[in-house]
Amino acid sequence: MAALVVIPARYASTRFPGKMLANQTGRPLVQHVVDRLRGCAKVSQVLVAADDTRIVEALRPFGTRCVMTAAHHQSGTDRIAEVARQVQDRIIVNVQGDEPEIEPRVVDGLIERMESSADDMATAAAVFPPRADVNDPNLVKVVRTLDGRAVYFSRSPIPYRRDETTRVNPPYYLHLGVYAYRREFLLEFASWEPTPLEQAEKLEQLRALEHGRSIFVGLVERVTNGIDTPEQYAEFVRRAGERS
Fold it and tell me: What is the DSSP secondary-structure string of the chain?
């Protein structure tokens, strides 16, 4: 069962205006994401859900399929849901447009999980990198059940380690912002009003948990680098140059 990947691409960005079209590598940032996803074995098509014609025009030379979506959407999930209403794919994957180094096997793994389970949605996490600050609220933490389902997501360090010396302290897991949904659930999710915990933490995925729905959290070996600032983009350009 092949899946549809939708990349929500919003032109405005507070910390990095116009970052989707940053092109010091000769390709727009979001095009790098598309290129990576073309290496997925279980993806039938990759769409960019844009809110600005400048994104559409910038991607046209690369043959990337774009869908114009409403400018008023408050989140990437709402933007993807607009696309989902127009397609019939049973599994839809949300990949952020600022993840140019995402690993195709992570996306394929989430799709495989959705094919073989009854989960409403699936996402990914990794053990916190050694140099990452677990107290950084921009790095979202997640705790899982023994069978891999999400208990809670938070900007605070969870679980709280009351006794740092105990031998049974579980690792901190860093949540990675990629999601696979069943189409029917995605449309239902987008119809719900924001929930209290979601609004407190500013984390959309909590809306699903507050409604008692299941989110599988698959573990991956490596954290890839999302682009939030011009400085992070400059580092990506440097890495891209080293690979070429």
Answer: --EEEEEEE-S--SSSTTGGG--TTSS-HHHHHHHHHTT-SSEEEEEEEESSHHHHHHHGGGT-EEEE--TT-SSHHHHHHHHHTT---SEEEEE-TT-TT--HHHHHHHHHHHHHS--SEEEEEEEPPTTS-TT-TTS-EEEE-TTSBEEEEESS-SS--S-TT-TTPPPPEEEEEEEEEEHHHHHHHHHSPPPHHHHHHT-THHHHHHTT--EEEEE-S-------SHHHHHHHHHHHHHH-
> What band does 15 get if pLDDT is binned at 50, 70 and 90?
confident
**Among 52, 49, 132, 131, which residue's Cα sits nearest to residue 86?**
49
Decide: pTM greater than 0.90: yes
| pLDDT tens digits along 153-164 | 999 999 998 887
Considering the domain 3-243 in this protein, what is its CATH number? 3.90.550.10
How do the domains of the chain map onto residue ranges?
3-243
Instruction: Give the tens place of pLDDT for each residue, 42-70.
Output: 999 999 999 999 999 999 999 999 999 98
Alpha-carbon distance values, 205 to 15, 22, 141, 194 (Å)? 23, 28, 12, 10
pLDDT at 1 over 70: no
